[in-house]
Amino acid sequence: MTESLTAVLLILLINALTFGAFWWDKDAARKGEWRVPESRLLWLALIGGSPGAVLAQRFLRHKTRKEPFRTQLMLICAMHAVALAVWFSAPLWAPIALAALSFAH
Fold first, then answer.
1. Which one of 10, 16, 17, 103 has the largest count of C-beta atoms within 10 Å of its C-beta?
2. What are the respective helix, strand and coil percentages of the chain, to the nearest 5?
3. Beta-carbon neighbour count of residue 80 at 10 Å?
4. pLDDT, tens digit (0-9, with 9 covering 90-100), for 49-73
């Protein structure tokens, strides 16, 4: 298996686990049972499950108005969007940045 495929499968797994945790929490909330801590839900989003978290939030209508959870999740999503933009644009600016660093010495 290639590294790219492994990375994609790992991200899919993290997002599936995140969606599942939101589902579990929603079900537990309905039944009045043990809940998944918000810190764990946010941690799952932070380690790569933010798409799964947002999908679960919208699909399950869970934690859509809960503050500061909603804002924290959106900040995590924004951070992931910036990181992806930087990563995808790296082939464009990385050689220029490396050249500038070599001139600085």
1. 17
2. 85, 0, 15
3. 16
4. 999 999 999 999 999 999 999 999 9
Measured between alpha carbons, how far is 84 from 91 in angstroms, rounded to an integer? 13
Taking the CB of residue 36, how many other CB atoms lie within 10 A of it? 17
Residue 29: partners with Cβ closer than 8 Å, 6 or more residues away: 35, 62
Could you give the CA distance from residue 57 to residue 65 in angstroms, rounded to a whole number? 10
Residue 61 CA neighbour count, 13 Å, CB half: 1
Element (H, E) at 26: helix 3-31
In this prediction the pTM is: 0.83
What count of other Cβ atoms lies within 10 Å of the Cβ of residue 17? 15
Tokens describing residue 6 = 């492994």
d(CA 30, CA 20): 15
